[in-house]
Write a structure and sequence with these properties.
Blueprint (H helix, E strand, L loop, with lengths): L1 E3 L11 E8 L2 E8 L6 E6 L2 E6 L14 E6 L4 E3 L1 E5 L2 E5 L5 E3 L3 H6 L3 E4 L1 E18 L6 E10 L9 E11 L2 E18 L1
Parallel strand pairs: 1-5, 2-14
Antiparallel strand pairs: 1-15, 2-3, 3-12, 4-5, 6-7, 6-11, 8-9, 9-10, 12-13, 12-15, 14-15
Length: about 190
């Protein structure tokens, strides 16, 4: 499903990215997990699905469209893929299948932000992409290699479109790294499988 929204509304700070690929004049980055969205509502038009920012009371929980959906609890360092809120207290099922209960409302509110993944950031009609990938040694922050690559559109020699910047942790083939992409593109959307 193609979803149109304002790129600036996306919170990419905690994202874990997978593979990045060029397909014709499109550049795509896979979001494994960690994408946060502000309060949004969805509506459908001839072009497809649209997400627009809104107030909390108007929100339609657009996170339901994503195949990866979870809450992260920073107090316990846990991700909950199944959760419930009862009397403003969060309870979530951890990776071992055990239910964990918040002890107070402040702790619950701190952990109640939902994250999504399993989607692509799609930049259409690119004129230029500069990609920098730093590969890390296993279980360390030691950079063992830097890879840089430029993708230039054959359709134009000018930089046209809007400028986008994406950076974050990359996990590809079990290897960790840091990726940064400077992108010039005429269109942007999310692609949810």
């Amino acid at each position: 499903m193609r979803v149109f929204l304002d790129f600036g509304a996306l919170v990419l700070f905690d994202c874990v990215f997978g593979v990045a690929v060029v397909e014709g004049d499109r550049f795509k980055i896979y979001v494994v997990k960690g994408l946060a969205l502000p309060f949004m509502k969805d509506f459908f038009s001839e072009a497809g699905c649209n997400f627009v920012s809104c107030e909390q009371q108007e929100s339609t929980s657009v996170e339901r469209f994503f195949p990866v959906r979870y809450i992260y609890d920073p107090v316990r360092g846990s991700e909950y893929f199944d959760w419930a809120v009862e009397d403003e207290l969060l309870r979530g099922k951890n990776k071992d299948g055990d239910w964990v209960y918040s002890s107070n409302k402040a702790e619950s509110r701190f952990a109640m932000h939902e994250y999504v993944g399993g989607c692509w950031l799609v930049f259409d009609r690119i004129s230029h992409v500069h990609e920098v990938l730093d590969a890390y040694e296993a279980n360390s922050e030691l950079v063992i290699g830097r890879f840089e690559k430029d993708y230039v559109s054959s359709a134009t020699s000018m930089l046209v479109g809007d400028r986008y910047f994406v950076e974050g942790v990359c996990m590809n083939d079990g290897k960790a790294g840091w990726g940064a992409w400077n992108i010039m593109s005429e269109n942007f959307w999310l692609e949810i499988s």
